[in-house]
Design a protein that fits this description.
With about 260 residues, this protein is of the alpha/beta class. It has one domain: Alpha/Beta hydrolase fold, catalytic domain (Rossmann fold, 3-Layer(aba) Sandwich). The protein is about 35% helix and about 25% strand. The strands form two sheets. An eight-stranded mixed sheet has the order 1-2-4-3-5-6-9-10, with helices on both faces. A two-stranded antiparallel sheet has the order 7-8. Strand 7 and strand 8 form a beta hairpin. Helix 2 packs across helix 3. The radius of gyration is 17 Å and the shape is globular.
Length: about 260
């Protein structure tokens, strides 16, 4: 049974988070688009952190899970600012960022922002699960139908059935416009820490070729890409979760 969440107010919105005290480097979970901090992978990491005496922090973006705000008001910049605020207020010392899908984009932007503020030493490593950086432009824009483009122009959003929820996904014009401002796959992404990517080759949402393209933008040193031949987007099967745990353990050990 999970304890009730704590809350941090960021720009007037109550952001829900849960944290486990423990040794550094700890783990910080960054979930995907419309996911929450009580999902299978986050729960697996919480158990791993408890078993190994490591700190663990997870939160819900605004409009997600137990946090306040409206989902349709969300953008990458907004969710990034919330993630940075929780990270800086509720963690100490170096941390391994674990980003799933859109959370991988948030993680890479956090690295850039922390570098700008002189806090690169706060990142001990990155574990990216089916990472979807720049997904609005790289993955969605080329696939938009004429009707979807018209809806974005005329009403500012379109809806699409979700394979993961009874509620449709909502994509706004603001999300696409803001995505352009947050692109990371335009030049070399200096992480200054080891990066491990887990990517399913049967992922219908983020093709494994996207992970290969991301690797091209990362420094050659300390980057590991593990392709899971029969893996899907969730990467939540027992064997996927076991690989998640092994990867986290390796990154923590590598960072000292």
């Amino acid at each position: 049974m999970n304890p009730a969440p704590e809350f941090l107010t960021v720009s007037g919105t109550d952001i829900a988070f849960r944290r486990r005290s423990g040794a550094s480097p700890g783990l910080v979970w960054l979930g995907g688009f419309r996911s929450d901090m009580l999902g299978t992978k986050a729960e697996t990491l919480d158990r791993w952190a408890a078993d190994h005496g490591r700190a663990f922090l997870r939160h819900d973006y605004s409009g997600h899970g137990e946090s306040g705000g409206k989902f349709a008001d969300g953008t990458i910049s907004k969710w990034l600012a919330e993630s940075l605020a929780v990270f800086q207020a509720k963690t100490d010392g170096p941390q391994v960022l674990v980003g799933s899908s859109m959370g991988g984009w948030i993680a890479l932007r956090m690295v850039q922002e922390l570098k700008e503020s002189g806090e690169s030493n706060r990142i001990a490593g990155l574990l990216l699960l089916a990472p979807a950086p720049d997904f609005t432009q790289e993955l969605m824009q080329p696939q938009l139908t004429d009707a979807q483009k018209a809806a974005l122009t005329e009403q500012g959003y379109f809806e699409e059935l979700s394979d993961y929820s009874d509620e449709p996904n909502v994509y706004t014009r603001a999300l696409f416009e803001d995505g352009l401002k947050n692109r990371v796959m335009e030049g070399l992404i200096h992480t200054h820490s080891p990066v491990h990517i887990l990517q399913g080759m049967e992922d219908p949402d983020v093709p494994y070729q996207h992970a290969l393209k991301l690797v091209e933008h990362l420094p050659a040193d300390d980057v590991t890409l593990s392709l899971i031949k029969d893996g899907d987007h969730r990467l939540s099967r027992p064997q996927d979760l076991a690989m998640l745990e092994r990867s986290v353990e390796a990154l923590v050990e590598q960072s000292g």
